[in-house]
Fold these 4 entries.
Entry 1:
Amino acid sequence: MIRLAGVSYDYLQDGREHAALSGIDLAIHDGKWLTVLGANGSGKTTLAMLLNGLLQPQKGCIDVDGYDPSDPDAVWEVRRRVAYIFQNPENQLVATTIEEDVAFGPENLGLPREEIYRRVANVLRVVGMEGYREHEPHLLSGGQKQKVAIAGALAMEPRYLIMDEATSMLDPISREEILAAVADLHRERGIGIINISHFIEEALLGDEILVLSQGKVALQGNTGDVLAHGEALEALGIGLPPIIKLGHALKKRGYLDATLPLTVEEMVNALCRSK
């Protein structure tokens, strides 16, 4: 489990301190999918970097499975457990072939060559890139590069995977492929997902939602409970998917019961029950 207690972080800009995060309390349970939403500047990336030990909290504390990311002796164990996928995959591709790139993390762990080979072959198969082992990363499409970045993170065999706007630069088809691959990993391997996104549709894949606004928690809870706050979400600049908007409109008119449908299938079933 990842726990944050009273975590705050300020940036220094123009000689003044600006709060990026203020007093964040959060528990991310093993195997759960947490979606983090918020407008630009709400603190989403700062939160992600704190979870991975790339930044250290100025107030409060963070615990990752019993390890403190601010402890220099523990930070590498934290980063092995909490893998990070950046918005731009170019920031994570470091080698001249895909095979070498995916092997980079396990090699730094000092694993035996046979284990490295096993992990590389396994994760490339998982993300559907097993036929590209000898390809040069810079020749790949954006979606393929992001798949390689995910493979490199998975080769570390993490317990949690942070996706920091990892789908925002992709075309719709590549975005759907990446999310499907991550959903399979979440379901089959029990990897915890922390998906930081502008796309509220991606929240429908997850268990819980955290909404940040100006560095503070605006909304937090199970996916269905948070999406039920339609007006509050729109006030925070988070547009609702059409099916959620329709659900809110029908509830106001008394056509639906207290449960908000989150998918087309749920909507059809709810309308059938209300007849």
Note: The radius of gyration is 20 Å.
Entry 2:
Amino acid sequence: KAAVEFLMATSLYHPDTVARSLDHDGSGAEPGLKDPDGRWDLRPHHDRIITVTDETLATWHAVLETPEVRVRRTRMVYAVNRSVEAVLDKLSRSKRIGDLGLQFSSGWHEKNDRTKGYFVSSWGAPNSWDDVILQGPHLFVATPLYKTPNKTMLSNKDWSATDFETLAPDAIPVTAYKPAGDRYAYDCAYTDWGDADNPKPARDYYRVAWRYMAANTGERTLISAILPPGAGHTDGIMSAGSAHSSASDIALLSGFLASLVLDFTVRTAPKSTIRSGTINRLALDLGRSLRSEFVLRALRLNAITQGYRGLWEEAFNPDFLVDSWTTRSHNFHRAELQAVGRTWTDQTPLRYAIDRRQAQVELDAIAALRLGLSADELCTIYRTQFAVLYGYDRNVYFYDANGRLVPNSVLTVWRKKGDAITAEERTATNQAGNTYTYELPFVTLDREADMRQAYAEFERRLAERS
């Protein structure tokens, strides 16, 4: 067979970019999907042009395909620059989530199973988690109960954001669907991971779950969180778990699925849905390095109500009590990372936006470090592959002196009046019905700098332990 060798470039918005990239000397930062001003990135660069060989196809195959697919039949990876291609090459050598032997559930079919009478449309908070039926908007990255449907239930956009500061410890999510008909039939018809002699209902376990639909160019594509026992979901969500998975393993897996690195892997081959095969092929490291730090951050993001008490208490590690944030540069942090106990309390979850952001940043740094990526590679992924998130970090996500995200209604006035804005103009009621006065100064935070600082601190901790 003749050797494979051809040139490839993706995410091109003008043919002139190709011509100038072929003549480029390779200097300067590699372009991404959008430039720093939020425009489609037309800048030429030598590293936009990738030479595809049999070795390249082998890397793509390891990331995307099962062994049954021939290497030369592998799908194309949309690598916008050579740094991205190098990251994929490293990830292709990692272990896979599929090695865990997880079982999967697509939940209730939103149309057919409702027609069969297993559930009905009915707005409100159920009496218990056993009656919960979740939909895609309930979840965001490492965030259960992210939004709840409004009573009007006009569309899939008619939802309101949760205020975690005031979320009750015993909160159960408001849902648009409720179980109906014979309860035994309802329970039996849902996914079971056992058999007739040894049933293992999927709803009996903590599971990782993600939105089934893939927004390939949105803020995030792989949008996942942990579900507690009892909860069901429609097929707008997929979930995975195992009767043999420990609480610590579920938390570890959720941290990886919430990371920019795995999200990047999903969006390098654009798709409309995220199925079990995609999840099984994602990279994973089950080693002990920084495991306690990783699990603590994942749990404090996910374990937001008493429904997660068992997960927290089973996964608790005394090392949690001597952990700490990797930076003190933000004076607005409201929670000490290590201020937890063996028993779940209403102080266990991170409730303020700035703390939740920092935990996510540190998860990203640990995931990159554990998977063998450099800080430069992590930041290149963020800057070049997550254009919407990058733009939000620079222009939308402003934090006030109390660590709260400032709403757009307040920002609009502040952008006109600056710090002369009055207290009344800094006061707003959020979608959950809570009113806050947002305190100056309003600041954006540099995710790239914070990821680098977190990465360096975790590197230092590893070196100290070796």
Note: The chain has a mean pLDDT of 93.
Entry 3:
Amino acid sequence: MILKNSVLNKMKNVIWLILLSSLLLVASENFKKVKVYPSGKQEYKTLAEVGIDHYWKDKDGGIVVYVSEKEFSGFEEKGLKTEILVDDWIRHYRESQAKISKAELKEQLANTSLQYGVNGFDFGSMGGFYTLDEVYEKLDEMYSEYPNLITRKESIGISYESRDIYFVKISDNPTMNESEPEVMYTALHHSREPQSMMQMIYFMFYLLENYGTNAEVTYLVDNREMYFIPVVNPDGYEENRRINSNGGGMHRKNMRVNTNGTIGVDLNRNYGPMDYWDSPNGGSSLDPQSNTYRGTEPFSEPETAAIREFLITHEIRACLNYHSFGNLLIYPYGALGKETPDSIIFREFGADMTQFNNYVYGTDDQTVGYTTRG
């Protein structure tokens, strides 16, 4: 875990080059870059009610978010103090954001090859990110080159729109069930967060290409069974490719057609059991229009049901679910709204895992400022 965070921190400049591309938005809906100044914990909860759960804190105490016109209207209705930094992000991006040249991209890839021994990682065709098909091609490429360290991709279930949700396993004997701790890594619960998937593909290549030459990597691969699910939400991710094939689609949820005609459930709010999914502590919505809509019941979505079944059939000791872009390491238990005896262990893990990247670690309330459910 420590190794991974160290590597990801060193890759920050590489990923940042393609992160800007993800903010090029579909012309049919304008987004704004806004700074909000919450006056207390209640206003952080108000942000969650509006459907905002991704932001970063500025030095002056304000938090910076990218929001749709509708979400911004929700800020005004709730009486939140705001400052518009960019009124029309599409126009701003097109007029003022410098394009990354092919030479600069090539230089970045050369540097990561030289410094970290990673050659399989490159940039995809969707604003620098891999498309869904390209992700799965990368998994095939890994298996073709390292069949002794990684399994073929295998489906854990079918999405709402009938797409496979694939996983692979990396270990020294990947096709065998050994008595080693099992770890699960997931990405793209939210389909507008491709950076979460890109860092995972990078880490996987780092493991495969440095096995046998790097002592820490070799230890991890020899003594762990690591399962990777790079795209939990294939439908939403493919929808963003449809919205803008050059990157920048902002659809977040899956593609469930709700009873009122709205689209999508926030998969990250759809987990159970019932007392978590329906916790009174807030952090998700029962409004199908909300970006944090948690669905009709726990595991109502085929994507989260597939994750549940995968967990039932494996003895996962630790699970890391990657998102972007808050520079936070959030540990359980969100729905409880308080720490538990397990928090002592989580704090130790948090301190170890953030010693290189200096992320803020803690429960959801201690990091993003509100409790979550689902």
Note: The chain has 14 helices and eleven strands.
Entry 4:
Amino acid sequence: MNFKELQTQQKLRGGYYTPDDLADFLTRWAAGANPASILEPSCGDGVFFKTIASRIGNPTVTAFEVDRQEAEKAIGQAISSKLTKANIRANDFLGWALDALWRGIRFDAVLGNPPFIRYQFLPPPFQARAENIFNTLNCKFTKHTNAWVPFVMASFALLRPGGRLAMVVPAEIIHLMHAGSLRTFLGRAARRMVIVDPDEIWFSGTLQGAVLLLAEKRRGEHDSPQGLSHLSRSRTRVRPLGPGGRV
């Protein structure tokens, strides 16, 4: 059993940040949607901002980071990257997402690395918001879920038709039961989905294996899903991507 008092502060807030090469790979996939608006639900210190500027330009970026010190770093990174239309909010993404879903707010692309935090380590308000995300999207909720699951669900729901999501997520998306609702949700809503599964652990200080999730939202009822591709690659092999950033 995992006891909260035995966990590090980094683990309790899920703060494992994305290496630059992975951020670039993910941004190149998102760039295939020609995004004018990008959502980053957990931006950390702003690691994606530099590659957004270099690969996409100066889109409107809406980003969230609950840790105020990290949010300040992200603001500095946005300024240095010349992302003049970036809005970094130092508050919880899920609470905002519930309102945004009802208001019909949508984005062209989503980038990020959502927090990897066990449900029992989440504060009660966050637990309630996570359950509300499941209910809003008509997905089966379980208290065995992890914080990253509602983050991905809400983020994908906030995409416009044809929009693209590119995220670092735990490898448990492939097989664990608590990710079953997410797999079903993506299976219904995604036109195309690719999982890049590495041969090594990317994040030091954690035994949690991670994969890259690339998904494109269906454009309409008649836009048939093309199925799930599950690619096994090492870290050094995630760099190549087809012309125009396409898999």
Note: The chain has eight helices and eight strands.
